[in-house]
Structures are given as structure tokens and as C-alpha cells.
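hey can u check if this looks right to u? its 167 residues, i copy pasted from the old doc so theres a chance i mangled smth
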Amino acid sequence: MGLDVQKLSSIKMLVLDVDGVLTDCRLWMDANGEWKRVYSVRDGVGIKALAEAGYKLAIITGAKATDVQARAKILGFHYFYEGALDKWPSFQQLQTDSGLTPSEMAYVGDDIFDIPLIKAVGFGATVPEAVDEVIENAQYVTKRPGGNGAVREICQFILKYGYYSKA
């Protein structure tokens, strides 16, 4: 399952799941009862570089947590949808809100809830530790793990081969 750079040429937006993609799937609860996650600085640098190059950014997550909201805001995500395991309605809303078609989007997810989006977009990717069904449906599996460079890997590909690339 190698990288098909042709599939990246129409990509104008990166859409991400959070847990297992921007994180390593681990959670802990702080003293105030808030769930917390660890995020990769390298992933953040890649996300910022995409935005600076003209790409749009979106998160569609089943989680509803203040740390996820804060991370999305800090990184400048243009679109943010949270709190629903069925991600399809949010995905449809994203198309309306952004004016982009699924073929202009890349999506990275790691669990069964992500499969419809992975199959619908122009470039659907996952991480090595994703559930088997997701790996079977993704066009690309990152070399780096979720929460530790997987998103940066996808960002680099989009920067090199995506719609706004200089390649």
C-alpha cells in the first residue's frame, strides 16, 4: 500500500480524527476530572505549515474535551466538529461549510467510525496501530505512529504533492 501521489494532487484540505491520530490513544484524568492527551509538537509544525501554504484544516472527533478544543484553536483549525461517534453528519456539514468536495479532502482516522470518511475522500490514510478494518480500507498507512509524527508525515506529502504544492 504505497503512496499514490496522483491522489494527492487535488487535495485542498486535511481532515483529522483526534484520538489515535493526533494522539497515541492514551488518556488520563487530571485532578479536576478533565481528560488529558499528549500531542506531538512535530505534528503541530506540519499542520501549521499546511495552513500557511493555503490548505484548510478540519477536525471531526467523537470526543468532546477542552484539551482537544484548545489544541484545535492553537493550531488554527478552520473547522471543528466534536462529540459524535457517527462522523458522517459532521462530514456532510464540513462540505457545506467549506464548499469543498470529498475528492478535495484528505482524511486520517484509526477506528471503525472513520471508515466511511476514509472511503469517501480523495486520500484516506490511517496509522499503523489502527484497527484492521481501517487498514484494509485506507489508501495509505503512515510509517510513524499516531500521536508521534503520523500527521506530520501526511502533511509533508500534501505539501509536496497537494493542490497548492510547487511540485
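The two ends are 22 Å apart (CA to CA).
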